[in-house]
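Need a sequence for this fold. Nothing fancy.
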């Protein structure tokens, strides 16, 4: 999917909501545990109930890898279900990968060719040759961790390196890499005070902004300081949406939470 197709969807749905599919078997309604594939059954119900309110879904790989082969099968079924039934929806593999070039090439092949995700999150720490294999894919997007939502972001990302914060160096350096137009950046919703500075460096790039809901990030401030002329934002909420209810009404409750976020987003468009 191209970024202009993504912006088109955002304008159509009046939403830049990304729903995180972080499935925890201890939190899903207990009746689903009787299903042959409880993770996929949960995801399918959440997707069907919320697809008109969201433009993206983001399964975090940890929640699937934790279940070995069964988890990986559930992930495969989830991405196939999205691609077959809702091809207009942008998909993000939140995998935070990155390794020496030939290994990154295999990660890129796995997420873009085999699983057919539109994008994957990648850590910048190993530098240019670890990221370029992802960037080589046309109309696929590499979402680089820049300034993350967690408290540990201050341990390294905001530290000064040669006169500027490390996260700024990551953004400035990476945008010059070959196929840098395929980059998006992760900026935590808990770090809105940095957004104006970030927009000066990358006015046009899409930002994936996790941290709204359970982590207390501020949606209004993200919109005020992070939005650009093409919207340029995907705001993620995982637990706040998918675990709105632990009962039989879980999908309906998720849709209600998603609608609240969508309505707030619509007010900024
Ligand atoms: O900086 C980051 C990068 C990734 N995440 C991931 O996003 C979701 C957030 O889940 P919530 O339940 O909405 O808090 C989760 O998959 C994280 O691993 C992040 O939170 N911050």
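Here you go.
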């Amino acid at each position: 999917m191209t970024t202009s197709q993504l912006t088109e969807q955002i304008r159509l749905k009046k939403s830049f909501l990304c729903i995180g599919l972080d499935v925890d078997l201890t939190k899903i309604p207990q009746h689903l545990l009787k299903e042959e594939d409880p993770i996929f059954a949960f995801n399918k119900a959440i997707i069907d109930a919320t697809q008109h309110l969201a433009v993206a879904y983001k399964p975090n790989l940890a929640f699937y890898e934790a279940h070995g082969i069964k988890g990986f099968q559930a992930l495969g079924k989830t991405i196939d279900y999205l691609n077959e039934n809702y091809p207009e929806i942008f998909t993000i593999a939140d995998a935070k990968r990155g390794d020496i070039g030939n290994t990154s090439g295999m990660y890129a092949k796995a997420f873009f060719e085999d699983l057919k995700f539109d994008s994957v999150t990648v850590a910048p720490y190993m530098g240019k040759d670890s990221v370029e294999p992802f960037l080589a894919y046309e109309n696929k997007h590499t979402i680089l961790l820049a300034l993350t939502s967690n408290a540990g972001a201050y341990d390294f990302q905001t530290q000064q390196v040669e006169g500027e914060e490390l996260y700024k160096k990551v953004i400035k350096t990476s945008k010059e890499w070959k196929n840098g137009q395929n980059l998006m950046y992760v900026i935590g919703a808990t770090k809105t005070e940095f957004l104006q500075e970030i927009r000066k460096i990358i006015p046009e790039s899409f930002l994936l902004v996790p941290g709204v809901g359970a982590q207390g990030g501020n949606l209004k401030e993200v919109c005020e300081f992070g939005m650009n002329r093409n919207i340029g934002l995907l705001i993620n909420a995982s637990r706040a949406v998918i675990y709105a209810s632990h009962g039989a009404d879980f999908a309906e409750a998720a849709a209600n939470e998603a609608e609240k976020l969508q309505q707030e987003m619509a007010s900024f468009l």
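For context: The two ends are 22 Å apart (CA to CA).
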